Amino acid sequence: MIFLQANSNNSSDFTYIMLFGTLAMVSLTLGIVFFVILHQRKVIKFNNHLKKLEDEKQQILLNASIKFQEEERNRIAADLHDDVGPLLATARLYLNENMINQEPAAQLQSIFSAKQIIDDAIQLIRNISHSMMPPTLKNFGLESAMSDLFQKINGSGTLNASVRFHDYRTRLKLEHELLIFRIMQELVNNIIKHSNAGFIHVTQNANATHSYLRLHHDGHGIVQTEFDRLNHVSTGLGLKNIASRIKVLNGRIFFEIDPSHTYYKVTLEIPKDAAY
Amino acid sequence: MPFIFGLFFLKKGVTKDLRAFFAYTLILFISVLAVITFRYFLKNYNTYLIFYRFFIFGEFTLISLFFSINIMNEKIKRVLKYLFIPFLFFSLYDYITSYNSKFTYYPLVLECLIFPLIIIYFFYEKIKYSTKFPIYLSPGFWIAVGFLIFSTGNFFLFLFSNLLLQDLDNKKLYNIIYGFFTILKNLLLITAVVVAKNSIKNEEESNINVNLELETFTPFKN
User: Fold this and answer.
1) Is B97 on the interface with A (CB under 8 A)?
2) What is the tens place of the pLDDT at every residue in B111-170?
3) CATH code linked to domain A134-276
4) Do A36 and B127 touch (CB under 8 A)?
């Protein structure tokens, strides 16, 4: 500020400097203000767009899960109506009022037939119940349930299926295990139906915070971008169910192809806070 | 003007930062009254200048307090909260050292240097964190713009004031520029008061008063 003490003869020069400086400063200020407004508007617009996309995705997932629930209910209703209903009706026929007038041998035969039919009905109801909650999963956990499932697939002889759990000392919560099991079931079903794979292999491992399940297969698979795309189209329930289940688990799923292009990988990442 | 608008508009639900701003408009109002009284009626120019020094200190303290409430960075918040202390010492030093207790404008120059820095940081934070509502819907934005334009517009004016005020023509120019930016600042501060009123109103409307008395609510009582 020493130059402020300069001679007053230079005051007109200072007037111009002052005017120019003031104009420059005000222009700069207005520039900053407009930049702030425009930039913030741009950010808000972008955030709103992201929120809209997220809302749309949520809506699709919600619709898918409702539709899936309805389909599941219809399946159970159909199983009960078409299979269990006729069986019990037949059993009722055997055990009608006329049975009392029959010969003892015929009576015994009717009772035996009715018993067999009721046994069949019990088995059917058990199958329906097992399809809702596999007993192996409930009693012995995810590892056993997965082994069970893969043994059945292996038994068909068309596909080589194997499973290996490396670190599953702490079981996850039952409802989370069921969700993971359903995801794996859906993935395996898709592979069997669409991929024409020769083998499916599942490995499991864990670190301090997450548990990982990786599924390998040598058929025609999909990669992450395709999964995201299919997830956004309104048709097809399977992948959307996988996505909604992953969301409930607070986990992540990655669809990849091996660099050698010989097999596909699907990796599930589940946080360990879902453990017991 | 901002104080009068504030009296009409801001009645309840005023936040801490707006209270600081309202206190500023109050001292602004008092200082205008003092200018009129001391300068034009009592013709006591020295008392007016001392009063003006107090006003500058009050303005600096309250506006830096306003931004310290609005800025999120804890370190800068703390610095702004106690920035009035070094400013007070500088003002006292300037008063003591100024020749024959003459007004030097240096505290104003310092104020015009510090405010834009604070405001630019304030804008930076707004860009970074405020991504939900447009910035111009908050009163803080208009207050910041008002002070930014006032500070940057008057910076060179205050810096060269000792030279400018020696010449009558330049004195006129000084008054025009200073008057223009002061009116502009006050208009922007009035806008801030109006925006603050609307934001308080919107907040009140979004808070639906639920008073169902759930403990004693018996809908099926005959």
Assistant:
1) no
2) 888 888 999 998 888 887 766 777 788 888 888 898 899 888 888 888 777 777 677 777
3) 3.30.565.10
4) yes
pLDDT in tens, A20-79: 888 888 888 889 888 888 888 888 888 888 888 888 887 787 777 777 778 888 888 888
Alpha-carbon span A85 to A106, nearest angstrom: 25
SS3 A218: coil
ipTM for the complex shown = 0.70
Q: Which of A85, A75, A172, A181 is nearest to A133 (CA)?
A: A181
Amino acid identity of A248? V
Burial A132-155 (b: 16+ CB within 10 A, else e): eebebbeeebbbebbbbbbeebee
How many residues can be counted in chain A? Answer: 276
> Alpha helix (H) ranges present in A80-217?
85-94, 104-132, 135-140, 142-155, 174-190
Measured CB to CB, residues of chain A less than 8 Å from chain B are 1, 4-6, 8, 10-11, 14-15, 17-19, 21-22, 25-26, 28-30, 32-33, 36-37, 39-41, 43-44, 47
In chain B, the residue whose alpha carbon lies closest to the alpha carbon of A32 is: B120
Which of A17, A21, A36 minimises the CB distance to B123?
A: A36
Q: Collect all residues of chain A within an 8 Å Cβ-Cβ radius of residue B153.
A: 22, 25-26, 29
